């Protein structure tokens, strides 16, 4: 039995609904169902009654009680081990969002040093969806995510920074000379965006905002991360992307703001609502008190 499987079961036992549990876990429903079946083979019997509705069997009720105890004990064991591994110095495990403004992790590091002298910060990169999974699996203490993001009740979040997005395109694009761009000029343009599953809330919000300002873009069949999009666009004068002004001046690209319809991306810090580690709680207090959206 793997801890990940045990976490999956505990969430499913709390929801008693495969789709809702899979959404909480940021995995697919078939994946969740498969892992529960593996777990049932391991324990030698059914943990759930699946029809007509999901219910725990007596064995499932026992595993739920014991599983929660195991997960709590493992969390505490890992915290104690990490403290011992660094001579008792506190460690902050930060989920570093791909493409985050460079100043933000630097500022978090400064606040960490001020709040907890001698503390060490360990970074784990990934998308918004990755960071939520890392939090759920106790692989990070705090995670940077792009809002809006719909988090389960067991998580809390707070906005810490904002950035304006504009349009980035090849310097050979027909709209490259416009400054700024009117949103209606984007109608019919192929927009290369990140995969929806990596940050569904932001993905949908950006498309709604563009449409609301008359920018009837055509979503590209090609979905890719920000760095890949910037690498592809110089050779695609027939497509556009969205980026902050940090993309301005990159070789082969131009960046243009949108007139009267600024697109804003909000960065938030997310954490488990019940913080057991006093060191993490102290840092969280410092972070939420001093960081605010620009």
UniProtKB/TrEMBL annotation:
Name the chain's protein.
LysR substrate-binding domain-containing protein
Which UniProt keywords are present, listed alphabetically?
Activator, DNA-binding, Transcription, Transcription regulation
Name the source organism.
Answer: Nocardia implantans
Assigned protein family? Belongs to the LysR transcriptional regulatory family.
UniProt keyword annotation of Translocase present: no
Q: Do you know which Pfam families this protein is assigned to?
A: HTH_1, LysR_substrate
Source domain of life: Bacteria
Q: Record's InterPro entries?
A: LysR_HTH_N (IPR000847), LysR_subst-bd (IPR005119), WH-like_DNA-bd_sf (IPR036388), WH_DNA-bd_sf (IPR036390)
Domain (HTH lysR-type): residue spans on this chain? 1-57
């Amino acid at each position: 039995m793997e801890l990940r499987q045990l976490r999956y079961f505990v969430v499913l036992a709390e929801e008693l609904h495969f789709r809702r549990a899979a959404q909480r876990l940021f995995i697919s429903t078939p994946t969740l169902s498969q892992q529960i079946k593996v777990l049932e083979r391991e324990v030698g019997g059914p943990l759930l009654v699946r029809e007509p509705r999901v219910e725990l069997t007596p064995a499932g009720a026992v595993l739920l009680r014991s599983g929660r105890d195991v997960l709590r004990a493992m969390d505490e064991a890992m915290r104690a081990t990490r403290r011992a591994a660094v001579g008792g110095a506190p460690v902050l495990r930060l989920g570093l969002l791909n493409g985050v403004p460079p100043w933000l992790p630097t500022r978090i590091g400064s606040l960490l040093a001020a709040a907890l002298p001698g503390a060490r910060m360990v970074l784990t990169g990934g998308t918004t969806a990755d960071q939520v999974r890392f939090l759920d699996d106790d692989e990070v203490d705090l995670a940077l995510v792009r809002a809006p993001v719909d988090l389960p009740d067991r998580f809390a979040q707070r906005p810490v920074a904002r950035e304006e997005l504009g349009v980035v395109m090849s310097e050979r694009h027909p709209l490259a000379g416009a400054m700024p761009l009117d949103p209606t000029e984007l109608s019919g343009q192929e927009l290369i965006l990140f995969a929806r599953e990596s940050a569904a809330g932001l993905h949908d919000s950006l498309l709604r905002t563009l449409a609301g300002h008359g920018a009837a873009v055509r979503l590209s069949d090609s979905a890719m991360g920000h760095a890949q999009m910037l690498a592809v666009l110089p050779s695609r004068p027939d497509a556009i992307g969205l980026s902050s002004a940090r993309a301005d001046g990159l070789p082969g690209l131009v960046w243009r703001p949108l007139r009267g319809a600024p697109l804003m991306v909000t960065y938030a810090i997310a954490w488990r609502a019940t913080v057991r580690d006093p060191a993490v709680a102290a840092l969280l207090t410092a972070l939420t008190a001093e960081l605010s959206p620009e």
